[in-house]
Structure formats: C-alpha cells, structure tokens
Amino acid sequence: MSDDRLSRVFAALADPTRRDIVARLADGGDATVGELAEPYAVSVQAVSKHLKVLEDAGLVSRRKDAQRRPVHLEADVFDLMTKWIERYRREAEDRFRRLDAVLESLDDERGDPLDAPVGDQAARPAGASRTEEAAS
User: Fold this and answer.
1) How large is the average pLDDT for residues 72-95?
2) Which of 32, 37, 65, 116 is the most buried if burial means most Cβ atoms within 10 Å?
3) Where is region (Disordered) located (predicted)?
4) What structural domains does the chain harbor?
C-alpha cells in the first residue's frame, strides 16, 4: 500500500462518523446509504459524502444490486493497515527490549539501591539524612 493511499485511509478513519459507518458495516454487513444514514441527525447527502471519502480511500465499495446500491466494506484494506501498524509495533517492542537490557545491566553493575536495608547508607540518596529517610 503506498504511503499516499495509507494516508487517505487513516484520514478517512479520523472522522468519528466514518469510523462508526465502518464499524456498522463490519458488524452488520452490506447496507444502503439510507440504512446507514438512519441513526444520524444528518441528511442522506451528508452520509453520501462520508461514503465518498471512505470509497476514495478504498475502505468501501458500492455495487449495483437490482434497485439497490449496497455499500460493502473492503476488509482487505484492514489487512494492509494491520501489516503497516504491526511493523512499527514490532520495532517499538524491540527498542523496549533493548532498553530493558541496558537498564538491567546498569542495575547489575551498581546493585539495586532499593534492595539495600533501610538503615544502609547506600540506599539513601546523596545528601539525604536519616531523618528524611525515616519520614518517607
């Protein structure tokens, strides 16, 4: 999926009405524009404009079915979005694993001051007195 198309998909889903339309299509299957417009306090034309944005982004399609023109959710677009998101999720997890390893090696080198006995000088932050320590 090109970055331009991906941008259109995410931009289309940035609107709460369009996200709701997509969710309703995912849950209930194909629907007409009139059926999709029912729960909103807007005109059918306004919902048609939302559908046009979703259609331009490749999230929905419309087909002729006798007298009806049902709106169909194009689920394959979500697979492409998921792959894109998953790539960055894995990269973030890798960074967190590396950070955890660095922090663990620092703890191993210095020892964990929180594991030291309360009266131990090493457990006290620099400049803190025993009185401050007891108060905390």
Assistant:
1) 91
2) 37
3) 108-136
4) 3-74 (1.10.10.10), 79-123 (no CATH)
